[in-house]
Amino acid sequence: QVQLVESGGGLVSAGGSLTLSCAASSRIYSSAVMGWFRQSPGKEREFVALIRWSSTTKNFADSVKGRFTISRDTATNTVYLQMRSLKPEDTGIYYCARGSQFSTSTNDYRDWGQGTQVTVSS
To answer: pLDDT for 11-26, tens place per residue?
Structure first.
C-alpha cells in the first residue's frame, strides 16, 4: 500500500509564502488524482487543490484560487502545493491524498498522509 508523507509546513507571516511537499512511497499511477486538503480546529476537512497525474489538469478551491498552485514530479512521485499571499485563515493541518476520481470530496480519496501544520500569523 502506498504511503504519503507531507512536509514543509511551518509558521509564516501573513502575505508570506510556503511550499508543501507530499512524497509517495511508490509510483503514482497515471490514472490517479492527487489532492490537497486542510483542516482547522473545530472544522471539517476541506478541499484545497487537486491535480490529475497524467494530464496535470488542476482544480482549486475558490478561497485559494490565484494564490496557490499545485504541481507534481513524476520522477520522484511527489506532489507540491505552492502557497503565496498567505492569510491567517489558511492556517490548518494540510493533508495530501490519492484517489481515482476528479473530485473535491474527501470521500473520493482513499490514501492519506499524516498531515503537516501550517500556521499563518497576522
So the answer is: 999 999 999 999 999 9
